[in-house]
Write a structure and sequence with these properties.
It contains 8 helices and 11 strands. By secondary structure, the chain is of the alpha+beta class. An 8-stranded mixed β-sheet has the order 4-11-5-10-9-8-7-6, sandwiched between helices. A 3-stranded antiparallel β-sheet has the order 1-2-3, sandwiched between helices. It is globular.
Length: about 260
């Protein structure tokens, strides 16, 4: 893990880019927090996130809860495991929030990511819009079809995104999406057909995205990965990614009385 503290500028840029890439139905901003609102299973599209690393007053949490409660949505926060949020985490526990889904935010250079596949080796196809075969991979055997449908919908409607596909025999066997914004390229929705894993297909997706990002002048790329997904972490390590910080989702388990 990279122990160097991320810069204030990078934290805000990455958090804004993350929310934009999942295209929530609506985003509000209060007291230095982004509040995305969306239905479905994609937690990043419906969890409040701070743009800065600083202590949070209970009044700010009150305002966040009020905004989600007003929409009949259980409040949720995406909160970095930073010391400055220790008081907030204690307050969340007092208010019946539970944390889950520890996730690593990782960053790399696009130059390094491109070297994951040797020059001349085949890369994933890169398209400006997803096709039916791209979407079908998210709904295929071994994946939650409900979650997959929500991810397809949200990733497909993000403005300016690119879509990678490794195609074999008329099927897409590996796929992903790449968004651009706030000085960063970002990778989302990585999927490989479970029967085709271990063949380097995800590496072709990453290298294809890196080539596309370099052609657009983006030198830095980030992604987010389940902290327990050892296979994905190993792949991203080979592509030059290092963890910048880790976060968890905190969701309230009870409605206020």
């Amino acid at each position: 893990m990279n122990t160097a503290a991320p810069s204030v500028t990078d934290i805000e840029a990455i958090e804004r880019a993350t929310v934009s890439a999942v295209s929530p139905d609506l985003t509000e901003e209060i007291d230095g927090w982004l509040l995305p609102f969306s239905g479905g299973t994609v937690k990043r599209a419906r969890s409040a996130v701070p743009l800065h690393r600083s202590a949070v007053e209970p009044a700010t949490l009150d305002r966040i809860e009020d905004r989600y409660d007003s929409r009949q949505v259980a409040p949720a926060l995406r909160l970095a495991d930073a010391p400055c949020f220790e008081g907030l985490r204690a307050e969340l526990e007092r208010r019946h929030y539970v944390d889950d889904s520890p996730t690593c935010v990782q960053a790399a250079s696009t130059q390094r990511m491109r070297r994951l596949v040797a020059p001349g080796a085949p890369l994933a196809d890169i398209d400006r819009a997803p096709d039916d075969a791209w979407a079908a991979l998210f709904l295929g055997e071994g994946f939650d079809p409900v979650d997959g449908a929500h991810r397809v919908r949200m990733l497909s409607r993000a403005q300016g995104s690119l879509y990678a596909s490794v195609r074999e025999g008329g099927r897409t066997v590996a796929a992903g999406a790449m968004a651009f914004g706030h000085g960063w390229a970002s990778v989302h929705g990585m999927r490989t057909d479970k029967a085709q894993r271990g063949r380097g297909l995800a590496g072709r997706v990453l290298a294809g995205f890196a080539q596309a990002a370099l052609e657009r002048g983006f030198e830095r790329v980030f992604l987010q990965v389940d902290a327990q997904n050892q296979a994905a972490l190993a792949l991203y390590r080979r592509a030059g990614f290092e963890t910048r910080w880790q976060y968890s989702y905190w969701q309230r388990q009870q409605w206020p009385r």
